[in-house]
Automatic annotation (TrEMBL), chain A:
It comes from Teichococcus rhizosphaerae. Residues 177-289 form the Acyl-CoA dehydrogenase/oxidase C-terminal domain. This is Acyl-CoA dehydrogenase. GO terms for molecular function: acyl-CoA dehydrogenase activity; flavin adenine dinucleotide binding. Keywords: FAD, Flavoprotein, Oxidoreductase.
Amino acid sequence: MDAVVTDDLLAQSAAELFARHATPAAVRAILGGGPAGVLWSAVEEAGFADALVPEEAGGAGLGPADALPVLLAAGRAAAPLPLGGTMLARAALARAGMAVPSGAIALAEALPGEALRGRVAAHGAAEWVLLPRPGGARLLPVAEAERDDASPYGTVLRWASAGNAPTLPEADWMAAGAWATLAAMAGAMERILEETVRYATERRQFGRAIAAFQAVQQQISVMTEDVFAARIAAQLASLPGEGGTGVAGLDTARIAAAKARIGEAASRVAGIAHAVHGAMGITAEVDLHLWTGLLHRGRLRFGAESHWNAWLGAEFLRGAEAQSLAFVRARLAPPLAENRPAEETTP
Amino acid sequence: MLTALPLSTIPAADEALRPAIRAFLAEHVPGIPPEIRARSWMGFDAGFSRALAAKGWLGLTFPKEYGGAGLGPFARYVLVEELLAAGAPVSAHWIADRQSGPLILRFGTEAQRRFHLPRICRGESFFCIGMSEPDTGSDLASVSTRAVREEGGWRLNGAKIWTTNAHHSHYMIALVRSSGTAQDRHKGLSQFIIDLSLPGVTISPIRDLAGDAHFSEVVFRDVLLPEDALIGEEGGGWAQVNAELAFERSGPERVLSSVVLLDAWIGWLRAEGAADAQSTALLGRLLGHLAVLRAMSVAVTDRLVRGESPVVEAALVKDLGTEFEQAIPALLEDRLGADPAREPPAALLRTLAYTSAMAPSYSLRGGTREILRGMIARGMGLR
Ligand SMILES: Cc1cc2nc3c(=O)[nH]c(=O)nc-3n(C[C@H](O)[C@H](O)[C@H](O)COP(=O)(O)OP(=O)(O)OC[C@H]3O[C@@H](n4cnc5c(N)ncnc54)[C@H](O)[C@@H]3O)c2cc1C
């Protein structure tokens, strides 16, 4: 089947699913500590969580770029689910020939030290946590963790022992988690843009829609630029790297660029959205904060801009390239098309 | 609402041009100091343009029968990207190759094509663009330079300003009023190819804040234009000009204007181990921005190749791209002054000084930031 069509179908079915099951009310209930089981079951039934699992192992055999529309759709709904993490963890387990347990898997950012400690976000519905450790990532049951919910940015989980938890070979799970996070952020930003444009054309002041004011228009244009940049950054981050050694073939350099760029866009987009919504946007009742909250939490998770900018700068300096553009072409651009003919102009 | 841009790549056959271009540039450009290379597409060197012409690299997208190479926009994209990354002095042929030639190809008569295009491809004909006037900037429809029909041609009076390279050019393509009055706005405007050697044309270079004289004021006093100076349709100037502008907003030149400075700074970081944690993070940030902008620019070019007209998407690339270009000198002023005990190399500082001074022009030329944001707002259904 044609790749573009598959893409659209997937995007459409994901959009429909989240519109039906991840309504703002459902999202609020989960964020408030309620169960996420119903929403997660719908996602499971649609097969989204097995999107990256090879076909031989019963999955859809898609790559991250094919699965991106699903994560964007989840972000548009601000669905507080560990969907990207589950996709990646299941793919890695299946590829390693290990058993894939039922239930959602949240990726954790490991906290250093002897103890088995990690931070997870959006882990509603998660039964498992994948905790990267020296020597490999451990798959640990949530039920056996001691939890600390003091931080609004994520729960810190701690296990007394790993027992005989399955261990995946070492991989860049930090980048993998950043990919899942940035995809949700890019999706949320698209939703924020739509909501902001809608609000600006509905809300009236001085006898006209606030969208009629040039100052408002210019702010929304800036937001549009950032949202577009974020979307293309997410697409870039979903492409395999040379050699494809990352989780599901993901590439750390592309993810570094995208997570930092999207984080930068996120604070500008959230700020403009709230400015345009006025006091109404500050209310609990209006849903805007569901998406802007996702952006603020997303910035901190799996490395904020400072982390990835430093990584990428150091990566450049480790090599010998003199030109910024040559580095971008070699490391941060889509892989070259091998067999498309050059266009001839018709006189 | 706009739809997302699919990622695109440059076709392999067009990429294949890159090594030869890089080899040529490695031979011709490194001798030029960085503060001169920083002039980017405003650096003038007719000899260099002719050397490119000799390689067959001017008019790459023009059909072969007019002296071009018959290649697509992506071939030119590769060429331009390498020229700008190297800081090659491209301005002599830049406007003819990028705007005037394509305009003549699209709207010109067969005779106009046969006359002008081969000369452009040989690097013998340089062009400039006469849109702005002393009282006409963003509000382009208010132009008041006027062409009046008379026996055997047109009589031209008025003045153009900020005309890049007018004093080095053979021809100007100007937007002028050919009927009606200023109240008619975009109706009654036409484009003319003006031979700048005609009697009655006075060109006065204007010195810019960096000390160069790259643009001019051009005054027309009773200039008699021949019949065939009109390009395209009489009264069709407004539509033609807008088609022209849409094509020049999303190319590498809207992202790479400060790249010579960026690379000069990188060279210093490497050579003197000046890369502290903050500089390293800034470098990473700029690389990330460049990667995303390039992907957007290539994606918009792909739409142009497919015959679409992504006007709003192009405006978006230009605004974000020029913001990046302007951020580079602004951020590097801070980096290069971060350690008062350290004196960065003078050539790097001269490159910084030039780029900082000229950077404001990046978001003026080709439509100001505010005008572009207005176009995006229209695309989003806000106006
Ligand atoms: C380096 C350089 C090279 C150039 N080369 C050429 C050339 O070769 N040929 C040519 O024809 N022109 C050229 N120009 C001129 C360029 O096209 C104009 O500078 C541009 O169109 C803006 O016009 P202006 O400078 O008169 O500014 P103005 O139009 O006077 O604008 C001044 C300020 O007011 C704002 N403004 C104006 N109207 C509005 C509005 N409706 N809403 C909100 N804000 C508004 C602008 O955004 C800007 O911030 C060049 C300019 C530069 C800097």
